[in-house]
Amino acid sequence: MLAGTAYAQALESLSIANQGGQRQTFQVEVARNDADRAQGLMYRRSMPANQGMLFDFGRVEPVSMWMQNTYLPLDMLFVRQDGTIARIAANTEPLSTRTIPSGEPVLAVLELNAGTAARLGIKPGDKLEHPLFKR
């Protein structure tokens, strides 16, 4: 944890099941409030391959993300209320202020290291398994 930052939360288990039934498991931090969502993965210089951050927006709505002050290239998975992936923005540009829209109303966004979705064959329509999607 960097001095003066409010992250390094407890990790929670999240799995992604592809349409063939294979599962990939990650340990994720969950950003459940405005402050955590605003901080996101900003200022971090590395993240283990099996980790990520899940942004819980608390309601289904169109969302936009950006990479300002984020040094890590990321894959952003925009996730519907039922846990299915609506869209993947792969290999997002570090430090960019360009907005990255969800494309439709979503409940959450999962950020993983860039290239993870392609490497593991994660695609739109695959399903996230986490308590957030059992509301």
Question: In words, what does this structure look like?
Answer:
This protein has 2 helices and 9 strands; from the N terminus they run ββαββββββαβ. The protein has one domain (12-134): Jelly Rolls, CATH 2.60.120.1140. Helix 1 (34-39) links the parallel strand 2 (23-31) and strand 3. With 135 residues, the chain is mainly beta.
Give a quick precis of the structure.
This protein has about 140 residues and is mainly β. It has helices at about 35-40, 115-120; strands spanning about 10-15, 25-30, 50-60, 65, 75-80, 85-90, 100, 105-115, 125-130.
How does CATH name the architecture? Sandwich
What is the structural class? mainly beta
What is the chain-wise order of helices and strands? EEHEEEEEEHE
**Main beta sheet, described?**
7 strands, mixed
Q: What does the average pLDDT come to?
A: 92
Number of helices, counting only DSSP H or I runs of 4 residues or more = 2
CATH fold naming: Jelly Rolls
Strand order of the largest sheet: 6-5-8-3-2-1-9
Radius of gyration: 14 Å
